């Protein structure tokens, strides 16, 4: 007696879940918190037009405060770099290839480096002795401002543009958010004119604070996966 053989039933294909990658809002909020703390601690920083004697006096009178601010500034560079890396990866996951992801990553790395250098120059200035040269104090303050001011703004503009352009063209971000990002990126590029004309310094806070708000909105609104329509 023979038994009929039953054909093997093929196993149901496993559904692959998209790799969502690390969260974006976490490093962004850490960066924002450190930035707010730095601004609060360094509210009395002398203007770039202050004399070397005034800068040296401020460094001597507020050395502990300046060192705390320097720590916060250097510390904020890490979550900013992480945010840029996650943004770059998120763009690739959404099907955005170079140059968008590469520009975002490079801009974020340069902006984070600018913050770190600015904090290091500020920390060095806070360690000056009372008999130090006012010219040296002014030079260190200029280096801290150059890297953390227009230097940061110009490089952060790359990060913002690297996300805003594909966010607008690919409809990955709400149009107002993407357009705002492009406007901030243009302002950041123009802020580099501060090195030639001091009057352009007013553009730096626009990028520093406007870019921070844009980064929060982008972290909350940028999708992790692209929604495909079914025909």
Automatic annotation (TrEMBL):
<feature type="transmembrane region" description="Helical">
    <location>
        <begin position="24"/>
        <end position="41"/>
    </location>
</feature>
<feature type="transmembrane region" description="Helical">
    <location>
        <begin position="100"/>
        <end position="123"/>
    </location>
</feature>
<feature type="transmembrane region" description="Helical">
    <location>
        <begin position="206"/>
        <end position="223"/>
    </location>
</feature>
<keyword id="KW-0812">Transmembrane</keyword>
<feature type="transmembrane region" description="Helical">
    <location>
        <begin position="68"/>
        <end position="88"/>
    </location>
</feature>
<protein>
    <recommendedName>
        <fullName>DUF4386 domain-containing protein</fullName>
    </recommendedName>
</protein>
<keyword id="KW-1133">Transmembrane helix</keyword>
<feature type="transmembrane region" description="Helical">
    <location>
        <begin position="177"/>
        <end position="200"/>
    </location>
</feature>
<keyword id="KW-0472">Membrane</keyword>
<feature type="transmembrane region" description="Helical">
    <location>
        <begin position="143"/>
        <end position="165"/>
    </location>
</feature>
């Amino acid at each position: 007696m023979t038994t009929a053989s039953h054909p093997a039933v093929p196993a149901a294909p496993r559904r692959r879940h998209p790799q969502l990658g690390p969260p974006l809002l976490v490093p962004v909020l850490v960066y924002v918190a450190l930035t707010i703390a730095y601004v609060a601690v360094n509210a009395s920083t002398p203007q770039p037009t202050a004399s070397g004697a005034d800068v040296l006096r401020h460094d001597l009178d507020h050395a502990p405060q300046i060192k705390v601010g320097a720590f916060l500034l250097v510390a904020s560079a890490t979550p900013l770099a992480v945010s840029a890396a996650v943004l770059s990866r998120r763009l690739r996951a959404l099907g955005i290839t170079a140059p968008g992801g590469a520009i975002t990553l490079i801009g974020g790395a340069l902006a984070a480096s600018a913050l770190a250098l600015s904090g290091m120059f500020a920390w060095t200035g806070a360690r000056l002795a009372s008999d130090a040269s006012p010219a040296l104090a002014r030079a260190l303050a200029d280096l801290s401002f150059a890297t953390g001011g227009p230097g940061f703004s110009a490089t952060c503009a790359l990060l913002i543009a690297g996300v805003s352009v594909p966010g607008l063209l690919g409809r990955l971000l709400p149009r107002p958010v993407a357009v705002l990002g492009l406007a901030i990126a243009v302002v950041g590029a123009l802020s580099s004119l501060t090195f030639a004309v001091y009057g352009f310094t007013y553009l730096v806070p626009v990028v520093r604070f406007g870019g921070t708000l844009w980064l929060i909105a982008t972290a909350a609104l940028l999708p992790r996966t692209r929604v495909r329509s079914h025909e």
